[in-house]
């Protein structure tokens, strides 16, 4: 049994116990109550942090994290687990969008945060200081938001540390999700990128779309999390074989250049979003005032992994993100790729220079 208490703020779990509650984060001009479950295992092992609700309007991850928190039993756990179902309460409960209604900031562009910054920057800093720092593994759960279609994938960033990158690649492949997208650099303000820069094995897990909250998808997410925890040795292994994965890298992100009504033309086949070639028409933005159309074309070829499903868009709104199969022998240099993230939807790249 571990002989170390697991604590965050006033919430504490002794070895072999589980604690659930909220911890108040001081954000300067306001506070936020962060719900947490601490599971201090009966046997030694890694420390794993799982967050959901970094963005509003992404309901299935919140549901899955809450379900997981209820299912975990300290007697079955090796190591320590921190599960945070709602990491950004203002965005989840009040805004229901990627940006916080408090200050208009997308928290997944400012990690690891600034303890002296605005409320969202302070929240990012609090999450890192109290949850992520000191973890061996970090899993951030997302899905397509209320206006976004998405193909399930796991994402992670290459750091140049061969041992860390190998461990993270194996973690990414453990969820039972076929598609894994590599970021070729660990830059930007995304949660998993910021954690990777600190030497933590960190992944982004995207499952579900359109903000849906169906129980079947939530249970599938929980099953994937249990697979990953068994892979990490946090739970005892079972007889399941690892699922094959396909590796991709981002080839382009497409953002709106006009205000208007968005009519996508890329096709869908079940849960597979269409393949496009460079120059293909992705859709049209129509000015509702005079009917003028702005044609949006693919700046590069690839598979569309997520796309805008909402009707109204403004300049900078992310319309689609494309990826191509990863082949390290023939892959383009990172500085020749056009990664997603220039709008508000992506979790894979920082929109800032």
Walkthrough of the structure:
With 353 residues, the protein is of the alpha+beta class. The chain is 20% helix and 33% strand. Strands 3, 4, 5, 6, 7, 8, 9, 10, 11, 12, 16, 19 and 21 form a 13-stranded mixed β-sheet that branches. It has a four-stranded antiparallel β-sheet with strand order 18-17-13-20, with no helix packed on it. A two-stranded antiparallel ribbon has the order 1-2. The longest helix has 18 residues. The termini are far apart. The C terminus is likely disordered.
Short description:
By secondary structure, the protein is α+β, with helices and mostly antiparallel strands.
Key terms:
single chain; 353 residues; alpha+beta; 13-stranded mixed beta sheet; four-stranded antiparallel beta sheet; 6 helices; 21 strands; 20% helix
- Described by the principal axes of the CA atoms, the overall outline is globular
Average pLDDT number: 90
Main beta-sheet annotation? 13 strands, mixed
Number of strands: 21
Q: What is the helix/strand order?
A: EEEEEHEHHEEEHEHEHEEEEEEEEEE
What portion of residues is helical?
Answer: 10-25%
Topology:
Elements: E1 6-8, E2 11-13, E3 17-26, E4 31-40, E5 43-51, H1 59-71, E6 78-84, H2 89-95, H3 119-132, E7 137-142, E8 148-150, E9 153-157, H4 162-172, E10 179-183, H5 191-197, E11 201-206, H6 215-232, E12 246-255, E13 260-264, E14 268-269, E15 272-273, E16 275-276, E17 281-286, E18 293-297, E19 302-308, E20 312-313, E21 318-325
Parallel strand pairs: 5-6, 5-7, 7-11, 9-10, 10-12
Antiparallel strand pairs: 1-2, 3-4, 4-6, 8-19, 9-11, 12-21, 13-17, 13-20, 14-15, 16-19, 17-18, 19-21
Helix pairs in contact: 1-6
